[in-house]
């Protein structure tokens, strides 16, 4: 199965993920990258989970849960967004929730697994990601996974009273 690695596996969202999703979506430190400005209620997130089964070709996005193989515990999410089958591209976002888990190679394995899925099952030509200039951990992660910085959006993100540049990273399927 494409979505199983050595340390993690990726799975579809379940109703039982509500509390984990609620905690993550309401973490203000992540709002900058998710373009969120207000908290989410459990009611709204429950509705989202009830519709999470919809096809990526219909809704143009897909969120999968990153689970540690050894414990089956949910440790993060990987998001595909702005899926464009005509131009064969899709955006990628990833979050590992605990600082401890960020140092264990889970994110790199998740990016590898989702990239294989995107190229083999969605027939995409490229995956792109936007990363703010000060997110050095994500920059290192995506570069380690073969993504190349191909552009820069000046003053793209306004956060904490100042503008930040956002870098465009791409991984092409050759």
List the helices and strands and how they pair.
Layout: E1 8-12, H1 18-25, H2 31-34, H3 42-50, H4 56-59, E2 62-68, E3 74-84, E4 89-96, H5 99-102, H6 106-121, E5 126-132, H7 136-144, E6 148-159, E7 162-172
Parallel strand pairs: 4-5
Antiparallel strand pairs: 1-2, 2-3, 3-4, 5-7, 6-7
With helices defined by DSSP (H or I, 4 residues minimum), what is the helix count? 7
Order of helices and strands: EHHHHEEEHHEHEE
- Domains counted in the coordinates: how many? 1
CATH architecture descriptor: 3-Layer(aba) Sandwich
Q: Round the Cα radius of gyration to an integer and report it.
A: 16 Å
Distance between the termini: 22 Å
Mean pLDDT: 91
Shape: globular
Structural class, please?
Answer: alpha+beta
Protein name: GNAT family N-acetyltransferase
Domain N-acetyltransferase: 8-174
Pfam families: Acetyltransf_3 (PF13302)
Organism: Aequorivita echinoideorum
């Amino acid at each position: 199965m494409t979505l199983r690695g050595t340390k993690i596996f990726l799975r579809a969202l379940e109703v039982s993920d509500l509390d984990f999703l609620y905690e993550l979506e309401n973490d203000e430190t992540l709002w900058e990258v998710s373009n969120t400005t207000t908290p989410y209620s459990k009611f709204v997130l429950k509705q989202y989970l009830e519709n999470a089964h919809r096809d990526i070709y219909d809704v143009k996005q897909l969120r999968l849960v990153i689970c540690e193989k050894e414990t089956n515990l949910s440790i993060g999410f990987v998001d595909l967004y702005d899926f464009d089958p005509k131009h064969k591209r899709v955006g990628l976002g990833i979050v590992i929730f605990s600082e401890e888990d960020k140092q264990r190679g889970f994110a790199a394995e998740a990016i590898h697994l989702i990239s294989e899925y995107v190229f083999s099952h969605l027939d995409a030509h490229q995956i792109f990601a936007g990363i703010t200039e000060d997110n050095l951990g994500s920059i290192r992660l995506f570069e380690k996974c073969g993504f190349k910085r191909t552009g820069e959006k000046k003053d793209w993100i306004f956060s904490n009273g100042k503008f930040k540049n956002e870098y465009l990273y791409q991984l092409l399927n050759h």
